[in-house]
Amino acid sequence: MQYNKQATEHAKEEVKKVLGILNEHLKTRTFLVGERVTLADITLVCSLLWLYKQVLEPSFRQSFTNTNRWFVTCVNQPQFKAVLGQLQLCNKMAQFDAKKFAELQPKKEKVPKEPKEPKSQEKKKTKEEKKPAAPEEEQDATDEVLSSEPKAKDPFAHLPKSPFVMDEFKRKYSNEDTLSVALPHFWEQFDKEGWSIWYSEYKYPTELTLTFMSCNLISGMFQRLDKLRKNAFASVILFGSNNDSSISGIWVFRGQELAFPMSPDWQVDYESYSWRKLDSDSEECRTMVREYFSWEGQFTHVGKPFKEGKIFK
User: Fold this and answer.
1) CA-CA distances (angstroms) from residue 57 to 7, 14, 31, 49?
2) What is the pLDDT of residue 121?
3) DSSP label of 248
């Protein structure tokens, strides 16, 4: 699949967290449950197999000594070897190969077009005369309603063209380092007349319970805003822990007004948040953009530790 630097780095951190938990569990245990191999060991070894074969190079796995010892012990049991064979642990982490990725993509074969013979006016006229009239298809009630509905107008159509190309920034953000490449590009190209930056905060933090449910709340909002993606970008972060969390984010919109009221399709969730427009020239705005876009920083206005972030792009 296409390489995404930020997603890759985030995945590495998640792997480290999980291996750390497992490492602590195995500190006083030979196997996961009891004193012999069980279904738990078989299942987890198979889940970790490709990590140990392609990702967990020596420098990455060296701090998880208990997990390594358990994994090697399991895969060297005769019953494991009979299925998995002799396992070679990863020496160097697999890297994305753009050339190989391009080669693996299906290529569409171009069908050569046959040269068209010039048609005389006489032949064309004869053909038109012979062509039978197409029978009129009866429209059902649904077709009639749909055809009578006016086509949706672009809510941003009235705005003048802006030199800031959002798609170009999104490519930088997805594929290159955030702090050294994407953020400098953002501020160099940002058009403060044509775009605006907003800070959002969830109004009802006391109603947030389990963190995974709060993350689903953010993802659900993003899904319902699919048609806004071309003219917006956001980084929304969940802070804290279970039953003690908050949600806030930084949004970039086309134009100077909050985008959600511009279309009925975008108004489902936005009223659950408070919105404050930021001055793009202010130090506060630049600090918030850096912290929320990179998922790193003090976040002094929040008062809770970073838990998980979601990107709308």
Assistant:
1) 19, 16, 23, 13
2) 59
3) E
